[in-house]
Structure to design on (223 residues):
């Protein structure tokens, strides 16, 4: 993807496997978190969000886990497909704005 | 597909030119945002508008001038840009500000010669 950094961490998985993308956040007072997917040539696309009063939320093939003790967020993608190849960003709410992480590139191999 | 439309998709300009980026959202949202996305850096918030009032200006140089004439439209006026301003400029909108998802357009790829 030409829209993101050259030195992103990359997660390589086989098609059909489960993927886990991790994110550490900085502010223990943050109460809202969100995951985005960005494909090459496109803007970030909303995947799933979670509020701090929850520790798990499930969507279609995706699950977000929140561990407030260690300020860690993860995105799990079940049965990863080639169309899941993209850069994934986590973001935390920072009072009127979202603060984005650097992103992780997910590469899905047939 | 997207409720946030940005034009143009690509823009090449010289350092002395004046140009404008346009963003339009069809989602009935009250808040709009400009972000800069460049290589080796996370998404950088530039400006936030809520109900056509600017609520955040993230130390952006004055050569970038935003305009929000109504809650559906957002412009970024560009003047005397520098080569380091080459980046993908993304517009987003949300129902209101704070604790909710933002919906992004596909961006304008800006190249400064």
């Amino acid at each position: 993807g030409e829209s993101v950094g050259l030195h992103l961490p990359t997660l390589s998985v086989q098609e059909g496997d489960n993927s886990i993308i991790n994110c550490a956040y900085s502010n223990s007072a943050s109460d809202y978190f969100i995951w985005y997917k960005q494909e090459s040539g496109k803007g970030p696309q909303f995947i799933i969000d979670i509020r701090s009063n929850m520790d798990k939320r499930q969507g279609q093939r995706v699950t977000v886990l929140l561990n407030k003790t260690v300020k860690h967020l993860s995105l799990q993608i079940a049965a990863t497909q080639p169309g899941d190849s993209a850069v994934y960003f986590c973001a935390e709410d920072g009072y009127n704005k979202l603060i984005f992480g650097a992103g992780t590139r997910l590469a899905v191999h047939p | 597909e997207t409720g946030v439309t940005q034009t143009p998709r690509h823009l090449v300009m010289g350092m002395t030119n004046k140009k404008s980026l346009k963003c339009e959202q069809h989602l009935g949202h009250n808040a709009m945002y400009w972000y800069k996305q460049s290589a080796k850096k996370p998404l950088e918030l530039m400006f936030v508008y809520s109900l056509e009032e600017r609520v955040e200006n993230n130390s952006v140089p004055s050569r970038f001038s935003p305009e929000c004439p109504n809650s559906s439209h957002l412009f970024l006026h560009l003047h005397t840009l520098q080569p380091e301003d080459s980046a993908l400029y993304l517009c987003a909108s949300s129902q209101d500000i704070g604790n909710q998802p933002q919906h992004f357009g596909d961006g304008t790829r800006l190249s400064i010669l």
